[in-house]
Design goal:
Blueprint (H helix, E strand, L loop, with lengths): L7 E2 L9 E9 L8 H23 L4 H14 L19 E7 L4 E8 L5 H11 L4 E3 H10 L13 H13 L13 E6 L5 E7 L20 E4 L3 E7 L1 H7 L1 H11 L4 H14 L4 E6 L5 E5 L3 E8 L2 E8 L3
Parallel strand pairs: 4-5
Antiparallel strand pairs: 1-11, 2-6, 2-12, 3-4, 3-7, 6-7, 8-9, 9-10, 10-11, 12-13
Helix pairs in contact: 1-2, 2-3, 7-8
Bound molecules: glycine.
């Protein structure tokens, strides 16, 4: 169920300023499941991602560059399930997904199932800017990254001892298609720049134990990521299958654009619908009016935001 007081954030009154909102996943994080050390590390990491994006926006840089940089910082941090620190597939391998969208032109780029490209968000951006396509997959996507000169790594670079332990635990349970206990999630960023343009980016390792080439919502434009200068920039996190079924990111934008709903209301309505069909997760959003919002139906979401006239804020639990 939505908790309107704690699970939503709300900021408006743009006044020509810039905005940045980030997330590091939504799920079953609660105070008794996160150690004080993890709590501190996560908050520092979220702060670092906000610093990276806001350094660009405050100098008049683009929303597109800001979301790229914030997501890259989160991909490089092993605390999050994206880039280094990604979860392992059923076969104990790495398959990374990412996407990016520019609200100015509604150009988009996405990749699924890559395993050697160090920063999938950079690859998604190259797909958008240097290929005639929107969506590339698996080996072909990694090959395109190589051709583009993007840094390649051995897949073992992405793995951490904690992710191997979670995978072993998952395999030992011998149940389910994948681990739905999503306490570690996807990362994402949305931004509004001084010129009034918005952008969104999302990156993930997917779900522990995923198999058969399963792809979630994060690289699916309209489901996990969407940006349109007329209404919004959205990045989602959660159980991808449900986000794909509702086209969550586009649905929120469409409600805001066509029904005139505030981004907060549009996001809350779509998350309520997600709850009705059994989905868990959340979204972050910004838009041309300067909203900086989030909405989620999970106990917690790693999240943060900052604006030209709003101080840096990071949070984990639903009641803060
Ligand atoms: N939201 C991430 C996934 O379902 O893969």
């Amino acid at each position: 169920m939505l908790n309107p007081d704690s699970a939503t954030g709300h900021e408006t009154n743009r006044e020509g300023g810039w905005r940045l909102v980030i997330h590091g996943g939504a799920g079953t994080m609660s105070r008794d499941r996160i150690t004080p050390e993890q709590d501190r590390e996560i908050r520092v990491a979220l702060g670092r991602a906000l610093d990276a994006g806001s350094a660009i926006l405050s100098k008049g840089g683009s929303a597109l560059d800001a979301v790229t940089e914030s997501v890259k910082v989160l991909e490089d941090d092993p605390n999050f399930n994206a880039g280094r620190g990604s979860v392992l597939t059923y076969d104990g391998e790495i398959e990374l997904d990412a996407s990016i969208m520019d609200g100015r032109t509604r150009s988009a780029g996405a990749v699924a199932g890559v395993s050697t490209t160090k920063n999938p968000v950079l690859l998604a951006r190259r797909v958008m800017e240097a290929s005639p396509h929107v969506f590339l997959g698996r080996k072909g996507a990694d090959r395109f990254a190589m051709e583009q000169g993007l840094e390649q790594v051995d897949p073992s670079y992405f793995e951490t001892p904690e992710r191997r332990r979670q995978w072993q635990e998952f395999r030992a349970r011998k149940v389910g298609y994948f681990d739905v206990d999503m306490k570690y999630g996807t990362v994402g960023a949305v931004a509004l720049d001084k010129e009034g343009h918005v952008a969104a980016a999302t990156s993930t390792g997917g779900l522990t134990g995923k198999r058969w080439g399963r792809i979630g919502d994060s690289p699916v434009i309209g489901a996990g990521t969407y940006a349109d200068d007329r209404a919004c920039a959205i990045s989602a996190t959660g159980a991808g299958e449900y986000f794909i079924r509702l086209g969550v990111a586009h649905e929120i934008c469409a409600r805001a654009r066509l029904k005139g709903e505030s981004l907060q209301k549009a996001a809350d309505m779509v998350i309520a619908e997600l709850t009705e069909i059994g989905g868990i997760g959340g979204v972050i959003a910004t838009g041309p009016q300067g909203e900086m919002i989030w909405s989620f139906n999970a106990p917690g979401m790693y999240r943060g935001r900052i604006g030209s006239s709003q101080p840096k804020q990071v949070a984990i639990f639903g009641d803060e």
